[in-house]
Amino acid sequence: MKYYFSINISANEFLPYYQGTIKDVVVRATDGTKVQFPAMHLRKHLTSSGIQGYFCLQTQQNKFLSLIKLK
After folding, report:
1. Which residue of 18, 27, 55, 70 has the smallest Cβ count within 10 Å?
2. Non-local CB neighbours of 2 within 8 Å, separated by 6+ positions
3. At residue 11, what are phi and psi to the nearest 5 degrees?
4. How far, in Å, CA of 64 to CA of 48, rounded?
5. Mind listing the pLDDT tens digit for each residue in 8-65?
6. Structure pTM?
7. What range does the domain containing 22 cover?
8. How many structural domains does the chain have?
9. Which three-class secondary structure string do you get for the chain?
10. Please, which residues bridge with residue 60 across strands?
11. Measured on CA atoms in the order 64, 71, 7, 40, is the torsion positive or negative?
12. What is the pLDDT of residue 20?
């Protein structure tokens, strides 16, 4: 299954996720579905200004497969 979503979170707001204090991110996909996945998968997209962009999350049987930044 593929889920498309936008995210805009500052570096400061992402800090608890990065440190592991908060383990999961919950986003609303463009089709309205709420999707939860481990925050650690967003770490590679973190810049000094935070995480901004449009992403595609791919799962199979509710298991994480990939997270790709599209824009």
Report:
1. 70
2. 56, 57, 58
3. -60, -40
4. 26
5. 999 999 999 989 899 999 999 999 999 999 999 999 999 999 999 999 999 999 899 9
6. 0.88
7. 2-69
8. 1
9. CEEEEEEEECHHHHHHHHHCCCCEEEEECCCCCEEEEEHHHHHHHCECCEEEEEEEEEEECCEEEEEEECC
10. 63
11. positive
12. 87
**Structure tokens, 70:** 């599209």
Tokens at 6, concatenated: 């936008």
Who's near 4: CB < 8 A, 6+ residues apart?
A: 29, 30, 31, 54, 55, 56, 57, 70
- Which tokens is 20 given? 């592991």
**Which tokens in the block code for residue 63?**
């298991």
Query: Per the structure block, which two tokens stand in for 13?
Result: 């707001």
User: Tokens 């609303």 belong to which residue?
Assistant: 28
Per-residue tokens: 55 = 């992403």
| Residue where the block lists tokens 């579905």 | 33
